[in-house]
TrEMBL record, chains A, B:
Pathway: Porphyrin-containing compound metabolism; protoporphyrin-IX biosynthesis; protoporphyrinogen-IX from coproporphyrinogen-III (O2 route): step 1/1. Residues 100-111 have a biased composition (Low complexity). Belongs to the aerobic coproporphyrinogen-III oxidase family. This is Oxygen-dependent coproporphyrinogen-III oxidase, mitochondrial. The lineage of its organism: Eukaryota, Metazoa, Chordata, Craniata, Vertebrata. The gene is CPOX. It is an enzyme of class 1 (oxidoreductase). GO terms for molecular function: coproporphyrinogen oxidase activity. It catalyses: coproporphyrinogen III + O2 + 2 H(+) = protoporphyrinogen IX + 2 CO2 + 2 H2O. Pfam families: Coprogen_oxidas (PF01218). One of its GO terms (biological process) is protoporphyrinogen IX biosynthetic process. Residues 64-113 are annotated as: Disordered. Homodimer.
Length: 384, 384
């Protein structure tokens, strides 16, 4: 999560403390059929009731501070159950990485947010099916910097700070999967939850997230399946959601200087805080549960498809556009990279393993390459 | 050149009208030994005396406007000598590109600057020696947008606008060369000249530019040769210039989120408007003339060196950092991409043909990869 604050601080919250972590369960399931990289012990520990409370208590203890308010006792909440810091799984082809990123020399900065334990981050590189795939689970809390608060305000949130300080807590799961085969599309999803404590003690909360697909070549059947699955997840809650969030997705993933979308969209939403926390959470869970059924059938259908060197090359050029979007426009990436103390390797996990830029590459008219470009320039409605 | 304005306007200047174009001559020479891609006829036309005056007159005529002030007659300035729009040379491996970039649909924007004729842009892809190499010559004039003017002001220029309008003229040459062989470094140079007309008719002018080297592996002899050649070019004008511009280069090409410089530096300067236009121009010409002798001997020394797949892979990872710098930090790239009507393909010509991102790649201690990283993290003085 890119949001970090200026100093360690406990945000006391009494209700639904660990509920957003339940979002993980459907997301983690995504990786089971193909990656087998997330040890079940870790997944289980993270989703265990009371985990979050215990992590906080432990962090405070480690810093020699005590929680300003006692954390209410809960059934199943036992200090001995506190899991040790989660080791980062070694990246497949790099011989294993160091868990902590080296601080940038010359930046003179210190971390401004507190990560609860090690982030649960898994990256697969050079796999059989996936060229690069990662999942990043993060829980951060602290004091929002004025810069971060301004960013939120510009998105419509009115926040009353006490002495310029806004305690916050953020948690989320994000994932990008870049397959090897150009007939299998890239998929990205991110679901996140924020809380901010205002001067008068009011808790502002909201959810954000989305799931979107980036094919190298257009397959209409896949596009319809993907959007239909997401629409069904949305429709269970409110028929207005899918059309609204489908358009938001097309608008958000717009590579302005190219006049193209990054992919064929999906759903995207942010700052959602109505009708009620419980209802939005139910909606977000439905979206997260739809990740596996909207994507995995497409992977299974195509990962054995044969492809030509020219098709691989076109995929690499599209990966170049993916890099352009992520580095130039993606709010999370930009914000994260500009925030001292953030974990660069986690933020840039979304970049493909390889990418390519050719000067003035223009596919021939009526080619398969021109067909996908047309859809990226003029988004279609895939389901009605 | 990224600077564009809001509407067509003639900036009348009476002296040294085409002198900055003379900068081209040493730069064009750089490409002769290896690329043979710039037809001599074009190079000759661009550097012909009176060319700029003639291009302006022709643009005004095409727009049905007349110059507000008559252009003084010059010897050798003959309307019949006006060259036709320069055709864009076809990019080697793309089957030839379209000269005009398609405007981004949905941006609803129009060009805000006027390019004098077609830009002289040459790109080589997949060559024997160079993986991707381009040279871009551009002359633009118009009215500075308030945004662009603000950018300049933030860099220390105080500009008095008339009704919020600042007529400007900008011209420059830029080039990036990404070689195939990982033992041949990437080289970049850019030399540019600006003029802005203030409310009272005062002309503000300044030069900017620089030359810098980005090796995949450190070769101390090459690094010393490169910096020594640049230092000699600077020292002819003022002994203070090289140390100042060497440091400016290390500071500018800093990838903050990585804590690394893009390469081993060179020289970089901006907003230089003293001691006099003629003296600065002489200095810039010396820098431009140094491009060939500082780089070509290094290319010749190494382009036949043998290399392993692992060395090629490390080169690709470094190319990824090059992309990160250019898309996230480079002022010209960012400004150009955000300016409606700018020519995207020219701006992104600087990106490498291919790049790679691996999660948590950390070279082993005391390896050749760690050696270059050390220098990128802690810049060295190569000449004293």
């Amino acid at each position: 999560m890119p949001y970090t604050g200026e100093q360690f601080h406990l945000v006391h919250r009494t209700a639904q403390e660990n509920t957003p972590l339940l979002l993980l369960q459907p997301c983690l399931a995504l990786y089971k059929p193909f990656i087998h990289m997330i040890p079940q012990s870790q997944a289980a520990a993270l989703t265990k009731p009371g985990y979050l409370t215990l992590v906080r208590r432990n962090v405070l203890r480690a810093l020699g501070q005590q929680p300003p308010l006692p954390t209410p006792h809960r059934p199943g909440c036992d200090a001995r159950a506190f899991p040790p810091p989660l080791p980062l799984p070694a990246a497949a082809s790099t011989g294993g990485g160091q868990p902590g990123a080296t601080p940038a020399p010359g930046t003179g900065s210190r971390p401004r947010g507190t990560q609860l334990g090690q982030p649960l981050l898994c990256v697969l590189q050079d796999g059989e099916v996936f060229e690069k795939a990662g999942v990043n689970v993060s829980v951060v809390f602290g004091i929002l910097s004025e810069e971060a608060a301004r960013q939120m305000r510009s998105r419509g949130k009115s926040l009353k700070a006490k002495d310029g300080k806004l305690p916050f807590c953020a948690m989320g799961v994000s994932s990008v999967i870049h397959p090897k085969n150009p007939h299998v599309p890239t998929m990205h999803f991110n679901y996140r939850y924020f809380e901010i404590e205002e001067a008068d003690g009011t808790i502002q909360w909201w959810f954000g997230g989305g799931t979107d697909l980036t094919p190298t070549y257009l397959n209409e059947e896949d596009a319809v399946h993907f959007h239909k699955t997401l629409k069904e997840a949305c429709d269970k809650h409110d028929l207005k959601l899918y059309p609204k969030y489908k358009k938001w997705c097309d608008d958000y993933f717009y590579i302005k200087h190219r006049g193209e979308r990054r992919g064929i969209g999906g759903i995207f939403f942010d700052d959602v805080d109505s009708p009620s926390k419980e209802e939005v959470f139910q909606f977000v869970k439905s979206c997260a549960k739809a990740v596996v059924p909207c994507y995995i059938p497409i992977v299974k259908r195509h990962y054995h498809d044969s492809f030509t060197p020219e098709e691989k090359l076109w995929q690499q050029l599209r990966r170049g556009r993916y890099v352009e979007f992520n580095l130039l426009y993606d709010r999370g990436t930009k914000f994260g990279l500009l925030t001292p103390g953030s974990r660069i390797e986690s933020i840039l996990m979304s970049l493909p393993l390889t990418a390519r830029w050719e000067y003035m590459h223009t596919p021939p008219e009526s080619s398969k390459e021109a067909e996908i470009l047309e859809v990226l320039r003029n988004p279609k409605d895939w389901v009605h």
